[in-house]
Amino acid sequence: MDSKTVFEKYSSDDALDRQHFQYAYIQLMGSKLTDYQVKVLFREATGGNCKKLDLQEFSAVMESQKGRTSREQQMELVFQAIDTRQSGRLELEGLVRLFRDNRLGYLKRQDMESLFLLLDREKKGWLDLQDIKTFYRRFDIPLH
């Protein structure tokens, strides 16, 4: 199905709310988004806090999603799962707590600090998704 057909299937009043956008996204892309991902896509598509997408905005969002690789999508999902405050930032203390509280493997604090500093090339004191992607590209680790 094309974007217009799916839009018409799920829209009401010629617009999609976030819930119906999720249904349409699943039908077209075959995967589910987190609430945070939907929020980000809506913000990007509308330039603000609009609660609904029209056909033009929906089509633009879907077009932007076509070029994403599944590896990149997985990376974003993991980042967003770790980013429990949904701030778009990961701080060292949060990562240390995450590994400790969830027993995600043994990694010494010193090793985590070294990795964090390697990823935080701009010395911001926090990491965002772009830092992670840059790391992958820097070491020629394919995102697909």
Instruction: List the total number of helices.
Output: 8
What would CATH call the homologous superfamily of the largest domain?
EF-hand
Q: Tell me, what's the shape?
A: elongated
| CATH fold-level topology of the largest domain | Recoverin, domain 1
Order of helices and strands: HHHHHHHH
How far apart are the first and last residues' alpha carbons, in Å? 24 Å
CATH class membership of the largest domain: Mainly Alpha
Q: What level of helicity do the residues show?
A: 55-70%
Return the average pLDDT rounded to an integer: 82
C-alpha-based Rg, rounded: 18 Å
Number of domains: 2
Low-confidence stretches: none
For the largest beta-sheet, the strand count, sense and barrel status come to: none
Beta percentage is under 5%
Extended strand count: 0
**CATH architecture term of the largest domain:** Orthogonal Bundle
Backbone structural class:
mainly alpha
What does this structure look like?
This protein is an all-alpha fold. The protein folds into 2 domains: 3-66, EF-hand (Recoverin, domain 1), CATH 1.10.238.10; 70-138, Recoverin, domain 1. 62% of the residues lie in helices and 0% in strands. It has 8 helices and no strands. The longest helix is centred in the middle third of the chain and has 13 residues, at 70-82. The model has no long low-confidence stretch (mean pLDDT 82).
